[in-house]
Write a structure and sequence with these properties.
CATH class of one domain: Mainly Beta
Radius of gyration: 16 Å
Structural class: mainly beta
CATH architecture of one domain: Sandwich
Strand content: 35-45%
Shape: globular
Order of helices and strands: EHEEEEEEEEEEE
Helix content: under 10%
Strand order of the largest sheet: 1-2-9-4-7
Number of helices: 1
Length: 157
């Protein structure tokens, strides 16, 4: 039986195979974002950690907020712009930001000429629904606990 590693170099972690789980046309908007799911490599189930690289012009996600999940990011390299609600703030290495469930929508964008590298940390609790206020998209939970992408009118993608 294979056991998860005890430790490894985060920059050498395998990259997620898909650029995004979003349906089209939203998945294509994530080109330039590379996620390395660090928590998965250890078999973590209560929370996830991604090492995420954003090339110049890339975004971390669509502008979104969670109903139950708290999130946090920590900037390792580069200078991303944090968009939270209608506020924009330039971040630098060593800065972190936290997003309480039910709080304002948020995402990061790389307006610089260098790569940005961040750690994304979030819990994996059941029943989380995600709202994308700028897009016709939401993550809903079905009657059996399954999560799915839907239009804002509830019609599944």
């Amino acid at each position: 039986m294979d056991h998860p590693p005890i430790a490894f170099t985060a920059a050498e972690a395998p990259k997620r195979a898909k650029v995004s789980n979003y349906p089209e046309p939203f998945a294509s908007m994530m080109i330039g974002r590379v996620k390395q799911p660090l928590g998965d490599a250890f078999g973590l189930t209560a929370f996830g950690v991604n090492r995420t690289t954003l090339v110049p012009g890339a975004v971390s996600s669509l502008h979104h907020s969670h109903s139950r999940q708290d999130e946090m990011i920590y900037v390792l390299e580069g200078h991303p712009t944090l968009v939270s609600g209608e506020t924009e703030m330039l971040l630098h290495p060593g800065m972190c930001a936290g997003f309480v469930h039910g709080g304002p929508p948020h995402h990061l964008k790389n307006n610089s000429l260098q790569d940005v590298v961040i750690l994304e940390i979030g819990d994996r609790g059941a029943g989380d629904e995600i709202v994308y206020p700028l897009d016709d998209l939401q993550v809903a939970t079905g009657s059996k606990g399954e999560r799915y992408f839907a239009h804002k009118n509830g019609e599944p993608f």
